[in-house]
Automatic annotation (TrEMBL):
Domain Helicase C-terminal: residue ranges: 222-369
Organism: Bosea vestrisii
Official protein name in the record: DNA helicase RecQ
Catalytic activity: Couples ATP hydrolysis with the unwinding of duplex DNA by translocating in the 3'-5' direction
Family according to the record: Belongs to the helicase family. RecQ subfamily.
GO molecular function: helicase activity
A Pfam family annotated for this UniProt entry: DEAD
EC assignment: 5.6.2.4
EC category name: isomerase
Signal sequence range: none
CDD domains linked to this entry: DEXHc_RecQ (cd17920), SF2_C_RecQ (cd18794)
Keywords, alphabetical: ATP-binding, DNA damage, DNA recombination, DNA repair, DNA-binding, Helicase, Hydrolase, Isomerase, Metal-binding, Nucleotide-binding, Zinc
Domain HRDC: 537-612
Length: 612
C-alpha cells in the first residue's frame, strides 16, 4: 500500500507530467530524496533521471538547485518544465538582462522550485552566498561522472561542488549519472559526500537499443546503407575529426538528408544553429565530434552511428545512450578498423599523464576493442563491463538486441595457422609495413611496392592466395586487437610483432578468432520493415506523421523543440488510441493538465478530421 507521500508524488507525476507510473528505479531515488537523504543514482540514459530531482522539488516545495553541464541542456529542461506548469528558471551566460531579472524576482519571492546553473557559474564569487540567504533546500548534480578524474567527461569545476554544498549549509545532495564503472562510482561518492550516500544502481540494460558493429570496408557506403532504413528519423553520426564531420554532412545533404556538421571549430553561431535545428525539428542528422553530446535532451533520436571506433566503453555507452530515450526502438552502428585502434593507443601514449592513469586508459581501450571483435553477445559483454552478469539475448526478442545473436551468430575458429603465415610475413618484410602491403605479400599480388622492395622473393609471397586480400587485412586487424601485433612507428605506421605475436609464430601459443560473416546490403523490403520499427500499420502510421507535422508547426510558431510539445511516444499513443474527447486525451501517456489545456483540442480536432 502506498504511503501518503508516495500517493502525493504519483498524483503530481500524472497531473503535471502525464505519466501513470514511475519507471524502474525512480521511486527509490525520489523516496530517499524526500526523506532528506543524500542519494547517488547510476541509471541508464532514458530511465528518467531528471524526474528524480524534479518531482521531489514539487512534492516537498522549497528551492532545488540543479547543477547542469551545458547551457543548451538547462535551457531545454527549463522550457519543458515551464510548459508543464512548473516554476523553473536558469542562470547562465545566455540569459538576457530581462530573463535574469525575472529569475531573481521569482527567487526573491520564493516562487521558484527549480533553478538550473552551470558548475562554472557556481564557482564565481557571490552567487552561492546569495542563494544560501534565499534558502536552497536540495542540491541536484546531473552528469555526476564529470566530478571524477576517471570519468570520460571530467570537468575540474565539478570538483568544487562539495564546497558549494558546505556553503549552502550542507543541504542534501542527489547526484545522478548514466555512465560510471565501479572505480568512477567510488571516486564520485568520495568527492561529493562526507558520509556514504543512499546508492541506487539501476540496470545499464537498454532493451530498446540494437547494438551492431562492423569492420570498416567502405565506410561511406556502410553508413549510407544503414541510414536508408531510417528515413524521416533523427540521428547522430559521430566522427573522429572535424573535417570528417563536414565532409560527411555535405555528402548526406547531397543525398537528400537534412544533415549538419557540429564540432568545436565551427563559429559559435553556426554551431548553435545546427544544434537548435537538430533539437527542434524531425528527420535531422548531425555529423559530429564528441563535442556534440553530453546533455542532448532529445527523446526521439532513432539512431546513433560511430563512423570511427570510440576510445572507451564509457564513452560508447554514453553516446549510444542518446538514442531511444523515449523507450521506442532505436538502432546503433559502430564501424571500426585497425587504424582506429592504433590511433586510440597512440593518443593514450602521447598524453601527459602518470603511468597508473595510462595503464587504466589502455585497459579501457582494450575493453572497447574486445567489444568490437567479440564473438559473443554484445549486450552480455557490455553489461558485464559495468558489473552486470546477464545471459545472451535471443534473436528477435524485444530486449537489448545485438548483431551477434541469432541463427547467423559467428563462431570462434582456430586461426593459428593463418596467424603464423601473416606474422611470418611481418617478420620477413622487416616489421614496418601496413595491412594492405602484407595482404599483397600473402596473396602473391605483384604491385610496384612489392617489386621495389623485392618482397616477391620472400618465402611467404603467395602462401595465402587461397584467401582474398580483404580476409588477410581483417586478420591483421584481429591480431592487432588481440595484442599479437603493435604499431611499428607512430610516424609511419606499419606493424611489428609483440611478445604474444612471437609466441603464436613460434608455436608456443594458439589463437582462436571470430569467423566474420560477409556483410549483406539490406533489401528494399528489409528497409521498409526497419523503417516501421515502431510497429505502426499503414493508416496509424499516416496519422502519426500527420500529428508530427501539426506538432512541428506549433513548435515553430512557439519557437521551441517539437518534442517539448509532445514526444513521439505520446503522438504514437494518440494515433493508436484516437481519443474522442478531453477525458480520453488525458489518459494518454505524456499529456499532463497544462498540455491538455494548451493543445488538447487542437490535436483532438486533427485526429477527428484526419482522412488518411
Amino acid at each position: 500500500m502506498s504511503s501518503p507521500r508516495e500517493s502525493e508524488a504519483r498524483a503530481i507525476l500524472k497531473s503535471v507530467f502525464g505519466y501513470d507510473d514511475f519507471r524502474p528505479g525512480q521511486w527509490e531515488v525520489i523516496e530517499a530524496a524526500l526523506a532528506g537523504r543524500d542519494v547517488f543514482a547510476v541509471m541508464p540514459t532514458g530511465s528518467g533521471k531528471s524526474m528524480c530531482y524534479q518531482l521531489p522539488a514539487l512534492v516537498a516545495g522549497g528551492l532545488t538547485l540543479v547543477v547542469s553541464p551545458l547551457i543548451a541542456l538547462m535551457r531545454d529542461q527549463v522550457g519543458q518544465l515551464v510548459r508543464a506548469g512548473v516554476s523553473a528558471a536558469s542562470l547562465n551566460s545566455m540569459n538576457s538582462e530581462a530573463e535574469a531579472a525575472q529569475a531573481w524576482d521569482r527567487l526573491n519571492s520564493g516562487e521558484l522550485r527549480l533553478l538550473f546553473v552551470s558548475p562554472e557559474r557556481l564557482a564565481g564569487e557571490g552567487l552561492v552566498a546569495r542563494l544560501r540567504r534565499l534558502g536552497v533546500t536540495r542540491l541536484a548534480i546531473d552528469e555526476a561522472h564529470c566530478v571524477s578524474q576517471w570519468g570520460h567527461d571530467f570537468r575540474p569545476e565539478y570538483r568544487l561542488l562539495s564546497k558549494v554544498r558546505e556553503a549552502l549549509g550542507d543541504v542534501p545532495v542527489t547526484a545522478l549519472t548514466a555512465t560510471a564503472d565501479r572505480q568512477t562510482q567510488a571516486d564520485i561518492a568520495q568527492q561529493l559526500f562526507p558520509q556514504p550516500p543512499k546508492l541506487v544502481i539501476h540496470s545499464f540494460d537498454r532493451p530498446n537499443l540494437k547494438l551492431s558493429f562492423a569492420p570498416k570496408e567502405q565506410p561511406r557506403r556502410q553508413i549510407d546503407d544503414f541510414l536508408k532504413v531510417h528515413r524521416g528519423g533523427s540521428g547522430i553520426v559521430y566522427c573522429s575529426s572535424r573535417g570528417r564531420t563536414e565532409r560527411l554532412a555535405q555528402g548526406l545533404s547531397e543525398k537528400g538528408w537534412k544533415a549538419y556538421p557540429y564540432h568545436a571549430g565551427l563559429e559559435q553561431t553556426e554551431r548553435n544553429r545546427n544544434q537548435d535545428i537538430f533539437l527542434q525539428e524531425d528527420g535531422v542528422v548531425v555529423c559530429a565530434t564528441i563535442a556534440f553530446g553530453m546533455g542532448i535532451n532529445k527523446p526521439d533520436v532513432r539512431f546513433v552511428v560511430h563512423a570511427d571506433m570510440p576510445g572507451s566503453i564509457e564513452g560508447y555507452y554514453q553516446e549510444i545512450g542518446r538514442a531511444g530515450r523515449d523507450g521506442l526502438p532505436a538502432d546503433t552502428l559502430t564501424l571500426y578498423g585497425v587504424d582506429d585502434m592504433a590511433l586510440r593507443r597512440r593518443q593514450i601514449d602521447e598524453k601527459q599523464i602518470d603511468d597508473e592513469r595510462r595503464r587504466i586508459e589502455h585497459k579501457r581501450l582494450n575493453a572497447m576493442i574486445d567489444l568490437c571483435e567479440s564473438a559473443l553477445c554484445r549486450r552480455s559483454a557490455l553489461l558485464s563491463y559495468f558489473g552486470e552478469q546477464v545471459p545472451a539475448c535471443r534473436h528477435g526478442e524485444a530486449q537489448f538486441r545485438c548483431d551477434l545473436c541469432g541463427p547467423a551468430a559467428p563462431e570462434l575458429s582456430d586461426a593459428t595457422l593463418d596467424a603464423r603465415k601473416l606474422l611470418s610475413a611481418v617478420i620477413r618484410s622487416g616489421q614496418r609495413y601496413g595491412a594492405a602491403h602484407l595482404a599483397d605479400i600473402l596473396t602473391g599480388t605483384q604491385t610496384e611496392a612489392i617489386r621495389r622492395q623485392n618482397h616477391d622473393g620472400l618465402k611467404t609471397f603467395g602462401v595465402g592466395n587461397d584467401k582474398p586480400k580483404g580476409a588477410w587485412m581483417a586478420l591483421t586487424r584481429k591480431l592487432f586487437a588481440a595484442g599479437a601485433l603493435a604499431e611499428a612507428s607512430a610516424e609511419h605506421g606499419g606493424f611489428r610483432l609483440t611478445e604474444k605475436g612471437e609466441d603464436i609464430l613460434f608455436g608456443r601459443e594458439p589463437i582462436a578468432l571470430r569467423v566474420d560473416q560477409l556483410a549483406e546490403r539490406r533489401s528494399r523490403r528489409g528497409q521498409r520493415e526497419a523503417a516501421r520499427a515502431d510497429g505502426l500499420d499503414g493508416d496509424t502510421a499516416a496519422l502519426f506523421e500527420h500529428l508530427r507535422q501539426l506538432r512541428l508547426s506549433i513548435a515553430r510558431e512557439e519557437g521551441v523543440a517539437a518534442y517539448i510539445i509532445f514526444t513521439d511516444r505520446t503522438l504514437i499513443a494518440m494515433a493508436r488510441e484516437r481519443p474522442l474527447g478531453l477525458e480520453e486525451m488525458r489518459a494518454i501517456e505524456g499529456v499532463g493538465e497544462r498540455k491538455l489545456a494548451q493543445y488538447g483540442e487542437v490535436f483532438l480536432d486533427a485526429i477527428a478530421t484526419f482522412s488518411g
